[in-house]
Amino acid sequence: MTAQLIDGNALSKQLRAEVATRAAALTARGVKPGLAVVLVGENPASQVYVRNKVKACEDAGMHSVLEKYADTMTEAELLARVDALNNDPSIHGILVQLPLPKGIDAHKVIEAIAPEKDVDGFHVASAGALMVGQEGFKPCTPYGCMKMLEFIGVDPKGKHAVVIGRSNIVGKPMAMLLLQANATVTVCHSATPDLAHFTRQADIVVAAVGKRNVLTADMVKPGAVVLDVGMNRTEEGKLCGDVDFDGVKEVASWITPVPGGVGPMTITMLLVNTIESAERAAAAR
Ligand code: NAP
After folding, report:
1. Which residues are recorded as binding NADP(+) (predicted)?
2. Which residue of the set 117, 118, 120, 172 is catalytic?
3. Considering 236, 242, 249, 250, which has the largest number of Cβ atoms within 10 A of its Cβ?
4. Ligand 1 atom nearest residue 210's Cα
């Protein structure tokens, strides 16, 4: 079997066009959706991420503010900026790019963001809402993975989903979203003794580890859907995922490429969360 590709760029294009339509409608009602992106320090990868986020926002007709600070910024100064953005009515989403420089407690900063503007979905209030099935912002990467399943017409209900990785930003919320969608979910991590034992039983595998070739063809059930969240580099410096793409595509029914799979969906879902936040703010006016 040769798997069909799940095209994250094509799905993103479609979803971003929907966001742009909603943004135009809100703007016509006098509420221009706004996202603030805060970057502290000079991390080169973070610089690229924030640029892409701001550009995507502007392309969708939304207002965006990029605040860049030197890594000498103190935690108190950053908390003061977050507080100002919490109180700025032109801003509906606040994103503080991680990682933060040493000396700034990222947890404290995320918790300072008003939950109604937490478009990254990292606040404990958002995580709690997801846990108990209440309305809240879903973290963008796992939310994007769920949209991809929807896009290809795969309903997780009754399926066995195996999530590899248990971080707060990808693995754990991914597992919660799949559970909410009535999958039977297994979460694997670095202390899982025999990863292949679990992945071979999976109808859906989500790899979110950050290591190349964590999932190889012999570990995949024929016909499984494979979503590759990982972002790694080959020896030649080429971007690649956690999955041995060339091998696994011969076994899976659907697979995401890297690049062009989950990556573009993360920014897209940030836009979706921001427009939802702006719509809620407009409805409450
Ligand atoms: P993370 O916080 O480092 O978590 C990695 C997880 O993988 C941990 O739970 C770890 O287990 C587990 N793990 C490590 N080695 C393993 C192994 N050999 N077998 C099974 N599990 C193992 O990383 P993250 O933030 O979740 O990100 C994961 C990957 O996704 C990274 O490559 C990151 O760059 C990428 N990512 C991509 C996007 C995107 O937009 N495409 C967004 C976010 C992240 P323990 O908990 O036991 O340590």
Report:
1. 165-167
2. 120
3. 242
4. 32
